[in-house]
Amino acid sequence: MKNLHQIDLNLLVYLEVLLRERNVTQAANQLGLSQPAMSNGLRRLRALFDDPLLVRTSEGMNPTERALELEPLVKEILLGVDLAMQPASEFAPGEAQTVVRIMASDYAESTLFPAVLTQLREHAPGITLDIMNPSDVSFLDVERGKVDLVINRFDQMPQSFHQITLWEDSFSCLLSPDNPILDNFSLESYLHANHIWVSKTGMGVGVGVDPDDVQRLGWVDSALAERGEKRRIRVFTRHYQAAMTLAEQNDLIVTLPTRATWLKRDNPRVVVRDVPFEIPALELKMAWSPLLHNNAPHRWVRQFITGIARSLHSSAPTGT
Predict the structure, then answer these.
(1) Is 155 exposed, middle or buried (0-12, 13-18, 19+ CB in 10 A)?
(2) Cβ neighbours of 57 (radius 10 Å)
C-alpha cells in the first residue's frame, strides 16, 4: 500500500489531462511539457496504479476500466485543490484587469450583452469581454477552461457542466406593416406566407440546412410538425439582426424569440404579432466547466451576468 507522501500529486494533473485528451502529444501541449516528459509521466502513473491506464488501439489511445474509474475521482481531487488554492480575500472587480471569454448566440449577444456591458463599465471597467460565436467553440474547449462561459439555448450538454437558466422567452412574429397577411393574421395565412428561418445555434461548426429535416430546423418547425403542418421557408440565416432586417420586406415573416423583437419596437418598418399557434418556451442557459466553478473572479462574473439577466427578464417593455 502506497503512502500519500510517496505520491507526486503532479501526476494526478497529468492523469486528468491524459484521460481528457487521450493523446500523449496533445496532453503535453496542454501542460507545456515535452512529449518525452509526458511519456515518462504516463510510465510513472502506470506504475503507481499498476494498470496500463491508456492502451493504444486502431482508434487511438483508449482508457482502461481502471482509468475510467479513476477519472471522476481525480477530477474531484483537483477541484478540491483548486478551491483550497483560491485567495482568502474577496475578489475586487473594480481593480480586476482580465479578459473573460464567452461564447454567446446572436440572440443572447443582442438581448443580454448591451446591459451587461453598460453595468460592467461601471462596476468592473478593467474586465474585457471576448464574445465568440457558437461555431468558434466546442464543448471540449469549455471543459478545458479555454472558454469561461457559454450562453445559448442547448438541446444537450455534458453532465459535468454547471448550468443555470437565465430566462425563458416566448416567440413572436416580426413583419412589415405592408405585408398583406396583417389583414388576416391566422395560422392558415401564416402557413401560406413566405418565411425567414433563424438558426437555433448550438455549438461547433455548422452545416447547410435541409428544409425537409424538420427535427433539425428547431422549435418553430417542430411545433408546426406536431400539428401536421409545415411553413414555406424562403431564407435561411444564422443571424437575428439579419433576419429582422429582412422582415422589413413586405412578403416575408420571421418568427423568433419575443425578447429579440423588442429590439425593433421603435422601428416603423416592422410590426410585432403573436404567433398564431403554440410554441414551447425556450430557455436561455449559461454553462461553465467544473474546472472554473470555484474560481473567485469567475464566480463574480457568473453572478453579475445572472443578476442582470434576471432584472431584464422582469422588466419587459410596454407596448409590445
Answers:
(1) exposed
(2) 8
- H or E segment and range at residue 76: helix 65-85
- Half-sphere exposure of residue 58, counting CA atoms within 13 Å on the CB side? 0
Q: What is the pLDDT of residues 76-98, one digit of tens each?
A: 787 777 666 666 556 788 999 99
Strands (E), the chain: 54-57, 60-63, 98-104, 127-132, 149-152, 162-169, 171-175, 194-198, 232-237, 252-257, 271-274, 282-288
Residues 6+ apart with CB under 8 A from 289: 142, 143, 144, 145, 160, 161, 162
Q: What is the fold, at CATH topology level, of the domain defined by 95-164+283-313?
A: D-Maltodextrin-Binding Protein; domain 2 (3.40.190)
- Rounded to two decimals, what is the model's pTM? 0.69
Least Cα distance to 170 among 283, 276, 272 occurs for: 283
